[in-house]
């Protein structure tokens, strides 16, 4: 191990503290003694691979970050990271395409851990006609940048202040949970955009259950709420970081507009 390499104890301690868990909390969750956990963190005891993976599971460590834990303990990495065009991921890619297509005429997208657009259904294109800076639509497209950039969708979002606050909060939570520095960089970029004016904003309280996206389009004002779908039992890093964001009409007017756009 090089002088700058981090020990297993350092990795475990960082994830435990990130999850705001004491040694006792984690020991109880993992059903081991606090003394045993203390010995593992101090380096006085070397856990088995199964114990290490068990602790990582209890700490909800992302698959991408479990391999460094294994390496720090002297074990070989377990989790593969394949490109999306790898034949092994073809069933997953088909599943994503089916979900996206099946959601039409309502919009849906697939994104990776950095909010990079992986795929989108046909209902997305009409929503992007107002984007002024076409470079924002050049791959790789970051959907948060596209949403909040002053030359992107931001001028057309009628509840921009609350939508921006919602997206920023999600990104902060994601960075806090993962420690991914790319997300921190993206967060700082989004926060550097001009603060939206609140005068004249449209606000609709959907019984306090969701923050809607109020998007002005050539076809009319769309009110959308979204859900996020992830794969339930991934053992591949790439697959574990994919998510499908599906948008649903929040009112009948929006549903009618989206159906008419699909027919045009």
From TrEMBL:
| HTH cro/C1-type domain segment(s) | 12-66
Against Gene3D superfamilies, the record matches this protein to: 3.30.450.180, lambda repressor-like DNA-binding domains (1.10.260.40)
Membrane-crossing residue ranges in chain numbering: none
What's one GO MF term for it?
A: DNA binding
Position of the signal peptide: none
This protein is called: XRE family transcriptional regulator
* Source organism per UniProt: Rhizobium anhuiense
């Amino acid at each position: 191990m090089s002088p700058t390499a981090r020990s297993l104890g350092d990795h475990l301690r960082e994830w435990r503290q990130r999850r705001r868990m004491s040694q006792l909390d984690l020991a109880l969750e993992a059903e081991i003694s606090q003394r045993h956990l203390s010995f593992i963190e101090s380096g006085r005891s070397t856990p088995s691979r199964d114990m290490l993976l068990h602790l990582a599971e209890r700490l909800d460590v992302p698959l991408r970050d479990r391999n460094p834990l294994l390496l720090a303990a002297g074990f070989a990495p377990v989790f593969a990271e394949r490109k999306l065009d790898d034949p092994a991921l073809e069933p997953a890619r088909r599943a994503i395409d089916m979900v996206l297509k099946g959601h039409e005429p309502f919009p849906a997208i697939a994104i990776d851990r950095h909010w990079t657009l992986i795929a989108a259904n046909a209902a997305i294109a009409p929503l992007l006609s107002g984007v002024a800076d076409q470079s924002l639509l050049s791959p790789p497209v970051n959907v948060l940048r596209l949403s909040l950039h002053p030359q992107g969708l931001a001028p057309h979002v009628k509840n921009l202040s609350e939508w921006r606050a919602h997206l920023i909060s999600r990104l902060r939570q994601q960075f806090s949970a993962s420690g991914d520095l790319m997300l921190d960089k993206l967060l700082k970029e989004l926060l550097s955009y001009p603060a939206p004016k609140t005068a004249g904003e449209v606000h609709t309280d959907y019984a306090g259950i969701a923050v809607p996206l109020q998007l002005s389009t050539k076809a009319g004002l769309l009110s959308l709420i979204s859900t996020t779908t992830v794969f339930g039992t991934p053992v591949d890093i790439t697959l574990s970081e994919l998510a499908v964001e599906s948008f649903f009409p929040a009112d009948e007017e929006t549903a009618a507009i989206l159906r008419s756009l699909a027919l045009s």
